Amino acid sequence: MTQGALSAKAALAVGLIITQLFVARVAFGDSHKVLHWAGCGITKKAFMAELAAAYEKKTGIHIDLKGGGATAGIRETADGTVDMGGTCRMTLPETDSHELEVELNPVAWDALVVIAHKGNPVSNITSDQIRALYRGKITNWKQLGGADKPIHLYVRKGRISGVGYAIRQYLFKDSQTDFVTQYVEPSTGPLEKAVETDPLAVGMTGVSSARKRNVKMLAIDGREPTYDNVKNGSYGLYRPLYLVSSASPSPEVKAFIRFAQSEEGRAILRKNGTVPYLDAANLMKKMVIYGFGVR
Questions:
Q1: Which of 224, 222, 241 is nearest to 280 (CA)?
Q2: Residue 116: which H helix or E strand, with range?
Q3: Considering the entire predicted model, what is its pTM?
Q4: Which one, 39, 94, 220, 266, has the greatest CB density within 10 A?
Q5: Are residues 261 and 105 in contact, defined by beta-carbon separation less than 8 angstroms?
Q6: Distance between CA 82 and CA 73 in Å, rounded?
Q7: Is 64 domain-assigned?
């Protein structure tokens, strides 16, 4: 066999190996093209699936989405369990010093909303009634203008979940307030699903994810939680939604955050009924500052 023939045969063998490696890579996935995200159920339900799908179509990079809540979004990013996270609360280093090791990148505005079963006749609740409800002083729908039936108040487990913490700070000005109820859910998704199916249910969640559920959103003090009312600040219980990154994020994470904050990403948020952060950045000047005195 000539030297040229040997060279050609070797080249063919190398080519076959490269092809096999490529096929294997496609079959089993390229780990370098997957980013792992965990965190706030409201952010996940509101727009992350759509944002991730658009980004994958644009770049080929898949975003693996996992819930777990705002605390998981912050702490799992801090310890490197995931590449990035989502949170609907600020960092609380008083509860865990590792929360100092992340950066919060604002992408959207959300607002707390009271949700009830779709068939519930009650359409408005006051701030004072919400406080009485969570303290166990209002226990019957008749006290809110509804039927003479018991109220099933659904709440999130723990005091520092995104929604639970915001309720305590915005409505009670006390992060240690205990909610009086037996209906406790581990995360936002199960809470929202419970309200969908329980005719006597009531709870609070984020308007961004509530819009995608078969629930009734109540006005608070006569203010409807509409897109425009959140955007202009007239519906007062608003707060930012953040993408969480490490203090030194990878180029891939930086690129995704830039995409989420870009006009292309913001258009996806608007289409899903969520106010992009940069569309109403002036709200930060008016926002109630919260997060102090946490234990």
A1: 241
A2: strand 102-117
A3: 0.80
A4: 39
A5: yes
A6: 8
A7: yes
Domain count, the chain: 2
For helices 263-271 and 251-261, angle between their N-to-C axes, nearest 10 degrees = 60
Residue numbers of the domain that contains 100? 32-109+240-286
Same domain? 37 vs 102? yes
Interval 133-151: pLDDT, tens = 999 999 999 999 999 999 9
Asked whether the beta carbons of 205 and 253 are under 8 A apart, the reply is no
| 227, pLDDT greater than 90 | yes
164, 155 Cβ separation under 8 angstroms: yes
pLDDT at 94 (0 to 100):
86
Same domain, 103 and 115: no
Residue 256: how many CB atoms within 10 A of its CB? 26
Q: Are 115 and 210 in contact (CB under 8 A)?
A: yes
What gap in Å lies between CA 175 and CA 134, rounded to an integer?
13
CB 209 within 8 A of CB 188: yes
